[in-house]
Amino acid sequence: MNRPPARTLPLSPTFSPLYRQIKELILASLESGEWGPGDAIPSESDLAQRFGVSQGTVRKAIDEMAADNLLVRRQGKGTFVATHNDPHSFFRFLRLAANEGVLPTSRSVPLECTRARAGTDVARILGMAVGTPIVILRRVLYFADKPVVFDEVYLPAELFPDFSLDFLNANDESLYSLFESRYGVRMIRADERLRAVSADRVSAAALDVAEGSPLLLVERVAFTYGDKPVEWRRGFYSTANHHYHNELS
Amino acid sequence: MNRPPARTLPLSPTFSPLYRQIKELILASLESGEWGPGDAIPSESDLAQRFGVSQGTVRKAIDEMAADNLLVRRQGKGTFVATHNDPHSFFRFLRLAANEGVLPTSRSVPLECTRARAGTDVARILGMAVGTPIVILRRVLYFADKPVVFDEVYLPAELFPDFSLDFLNANDESLYSLFESRYGVRMIRADERLRAVSADRVSAAALDVAEGSPLLLVERVAFTYGDKPVEWRRGFYSTANHHYHNELS
DNA sequence: CTATTGACATCTTATATAAGACATATCATT
DNA sequence: AATGATATGTCTTATATAAGATGTCAATAG
């Protein structure tokens, strides 16, 4: 039988199996932009040759990255870089569902887009110095012409130049799709914290509910490659006819 | 090289790859109780011989089941049936986190345990006829001696005989751990729907908050093998110092 | 002549099997 | 307490077949 080539196994505290090292290499290529969102990456055997490992090892690395939603396999066609432009993963991060029936098509209405400087909260969450320029976007998501989600989005201004209301109105893609295609910032993971709060004047007005009525507050920190936080979002969900859906396993 | 044995591939609309068929067979053995929670299942090669396939095919089946949290691999020891008794997966379905610091140890205080008959809601959700006997449990979860979660749990009485307050007080395991060890009912998946609601008199009293204050309502349907629903739970979370944590990817 | 069809080659990923090297836990022996 | 045998899962490689997607090209029908 074919003996595998001799390999120096560090066995040290920093040991990681070969397929994971390959995963890191592929990840680096993704991060560097060698293959853009929606592109096909080279075939498994090409990558195997390039990295000097067997096709099965590359396969295992890609398997994990497909499970992480970083890559998408399509039998007979190839393996593709995941993209928020793909209608399939358009609402990958939106866990909203209608209490009955299916979620109707949504409409995003930007309210205002302002420039500011990071306070302590935003600075801590986005890993930046207090006073760093940020962009604040407020918008409402409508479903069947009813306001359901009022979002406040905080972004580092450095990464999103020219971000404006006009720009948003000219594009009807999803926000993350826009981030990806216009600014080259791909969201790959997010952390959410959910609480119940009373509607303040602003969110009550935006969502057309009584001040003080209960709202679901969804605070999200979204990360790009390297676990770098690049968005903080506070979403107020009106949960009279909708709910946040989560599957546990 | 070794040719695989000739195999009748149905290619029909109901085709499923061999490793998935093996998965179903292992699942059937789990469901039948051949290997109980916490037990080690036979080695991959044993299973391969038993099912007449190669070890690698068994491995792929087990890989998926480990990803589904049905099995747990332990290098050098074996593969084990997942259990809610394992401290590791004790709070597998509880997504509660403290706003700052780590979640302190919890204390579960049962309030009442009553018998009733299923109304239309419970009957629909648990897939039973209206009027089927059910058990209703109400309890409060305390963290650092503060009430945080008020739970109403609806169970089919048939599956949970002898369920009573005394019985609960005599056991300080988690509820699912109890279900598993005492009634042989293993929860393997759950669906949750989250909403913000106003505290009614009962939940306000249980959680020591003002009536009308906002609470996070977490409605959960938990399933056992074969996607059979066996628990409906309405949890009211006081989210002043805690939150529901969810990771998206 | 043009458009459609069908056969075919050639990509790709998906599935299946086998085997060697190795890490880790258990247990009996020294 | 240390040693060594054994069993097991893990990691890697190799090979072969199946099947989906797609383009080429010739035959065919209109």
Q: What is the C-level CATH assignment of the largest domain in chain A?
A: Alpha Beta
CATH superfamily descriptor of the largest domain in chain A? Chorismate lyase-like
Task: Give the overall form of chain A.
Answer: globular
Order of helices and strands of chain A: HEHHEEEEHEEHHEHEEE
Name the chain pair whose interface involves the most residues.
A-B, 33 and 33 residues
Separation, N- and C-terminal Cα atoms of chain A: 41 Å
GO molecular function, one term (chains A, B): DNA-binding transcription factor activity
Pfam family, one (chains A, B): GntR
InterPro entries (chains A, B): Bact_HTH_transcr_reg (IPR050679), Chorismate_lyase_/UTRA_dom_sf (IPR028978), Tscrpt_reg_HTH_GntR (IPR000524), UTRA (IPR011663), WH-like_DNA-bd_sf (IPR036388), WH_DNA-bd_sf (IPR036390)
Keywords (chains A, B): DNA-binding, Transcription, Transcription regulation
Give the SSE layout.
The structure is a homodimer of 249-residue chains.
Chain A: H1 18-32, E1 40-41, H2 44-51, H3 55-67, E2 71-74, E3 78-81, E4 96-98, E5 106-117, H4 120-126, E6 133-143, E7 146-156, H5 165-169, H6 175-183, E8 189-198, H7 201-207, E9 214-224, E10 228-237, E11 242-248
Antiparallel strand pairs in A: 1-3, 2-3, 4-11, 5-6, 6-7, 7-10, 8-9, 9-10
Helix pairs in contact in A: 1-3, 2-3
Chain A binds a DNA duplex (30 and 30 nucleotides) through residues 1-5, 7, 9, 11, 17-19, 40, 43-45, 53-57, 59-60, 73-79.
Question: How does this model look, in words?
Answer:
The structure is a homodimer of 249-residue chains. Chain A has 249 residues and is of the alpha+beta class. Chain A has two domains: 18-81, Orthogonal Bundle (Arc Repressor Mutant, subunit A); 87-244, Chorismate lyase (3-Layer(aba) Sandwich), CATH 3.40.1410.10. Chain A has seven helices and eleven strands. A six-stranded antiparallel β-sheet of chain A has the order 5-6-7-10-9-8. Chain A is globular, with a radius of gyration of 21 Å. The two termini of chain A are 41 Å apart. The model of chain A is unreliable at 1-13 (pLDDT under 50). At the A-B interface, strand 8, strand 9 and strand 11 of A face strand 8, strand 9 and strand 11 of B. Strand 11 (242-248) of chain A pairs antiparallel with strand 8 (189-198) of chain B, so a sheet runs across the interface. Chain A binds a DNA duplex (30 and 30 nucleotides) through helix 3. Chains A, B: Pfam families: GntR, UTRA. Chains A, B: GO terms for molecular function: DNA binding; DNA-binding transcription factor activity.
